[in-house]
Design a protein that fits this description.
This protein has 6 helices and 18 strands. It is of the alpha/beta class. The strands form 4 sheets. The protein has a 7-stranded mixed β-sheet, with helices on one face. A 7-stranded mixed β-sheet has the order 9-8-7-4-3-2-18, covered by helices on one side. A two-stranded antiparallel ribbon has the order 5-6. Strand 8, helix 3 and strand 9 form a beta-alpha-beta unit. It is globular, with a radius of gyration of 19 Å. It starts with a helix and ends in a 5-residue tail after the last strand.
Length: about 300
């Protein structure tokens, strides 16, 4: 009986902590001009441009993630005098992008928001990101910034369509080793139209697997699609700061999406874990049917209610 009481008390404390976090999380709103045509929320797509940059089209929204449009041979700065060379070209040049409603920026690093983007991206485009990155964007002259701490949400409305972007926990490095690295976040994108729920996409951001991620499947037990930032990035060739293949499968098993796409795996010379490592771990775990591999420029198409 005493053990049962202790377990009940522990569960009660955990529930109270969860309620406390939910109570302190902030929600803000953004209204976008409605498009002229009716919103169709039955089909969408994810186009892989390169690195962590994808174009997500669904329910009348076009969303750009972590814009990185430098070309092969060019360098990005990672801070503290470190830089990295790009090994690939983006599938689409920056000037050829379609009209974008929203940018989701996981953190302020050169391979996620490069110098070309800093110079040429529209200063009025809405950008949802971390508080730290929002400060840097302000210094660059970007006006439409939406800073989210973990579990904060931005609700975007565009006519009858809605999109809720919630900041997920993420840590860009090992315990104690992430201090010199930028504040980062994952993202949960929840689409809806006409008052109906549509599709849920989880974007891991540059993170390692750690305890705070356990809360994601507790809060979001039904995720349609996950975009996993891999690469096994190592700073100075030693400190791992993004997931390698084994970590990617751990997160895949943890958040248990209906389907997943690996990104951020071969574009820079600081990446030390090839995509083949993740493929091997996926096969060993018997999860081949849950993963689609995209080459630069490829598009993954989905339908609401289609669990593939």
């Amino acid at each position: 009986m005493a053990r049962i009481i202790r377990l009940w008390r522990a569960a009660l404390v955990a529930c109270m902590l969860c309620m406390s976090v939910a109570a302190t999380a902030k929600e803000t709103a953004l209204e976008l001009p409605a498009s002229g045509s009716a919103v169709k929320a039955d089909a969408g797509s994810v186009q892989f441009i390169g690195n962590a940059t994808v174009l997500i089209r669904y329910a009348g929204f076009t969303i750009l993630t972590d814009p990185n449009f430098l070309h092969k041979g060019e360098h990005v700065h990672l801070g503290y005098g470190l830089k990295s060379q790009r090994l690939t070209d983006p599938a689409i040049p920056l000037e050829k992008l379609p009209p974008v409603d929203l940018v989701v920026l996981s953190h302020m690093h050169g391979d996620h928001f490069d110098q070309l983007v800093q110079e040429k991206l529209d200063r009025n485009i809405p950008i949802v990101t971390t508080p730290e990155a929002a400060g840097a964007l302000a210094d660059m002259g970007f006006k439409n910034r939406h800073a989210l701490a973990t579990w904060d949400a931005l609700v975007v409305r565009k006519g009858e369509a809605s999109l809720r972007v919630t900041a997920m926990p993420a840590r860009h490095g090992p315990p104690g080793g992430s201090a010199p690295l930028p504040e980062t976040m994952g993202s949960m994108l929840e689409f809806g139209a006409g008052g109906k729920a549509g599709y849920r996409i989880y974007i891991s951001g540059d993170t390692l697997v750690y305890d705070d991620l356990d809360d994601i499947p507790k809060r979001y037990p039904d995720i349609d699609l996950a975009l996993l930032h891999l690469g096994g990035t190592r700073i100075l060739g030693v400190m791992k700061v993004t997931m390698d293949g084994k970590d990617g499968v751990k997160l895949l098993q943890l958040v248990a999406p209906h389907h997943a796409i690996p990104i951020h795996y071969n574009d820079y010379d600081v990446f030390k874990s090839p995509l083949s490592e993740f493929e091997g771990e996926v096969k060993a775990a018997g999860l081949q049917g849950k993963v689609t591999y995209l080459k630069h420029g490829d598009t993954y198409r989905f339908k609401s209610g289609n669990r593939r």
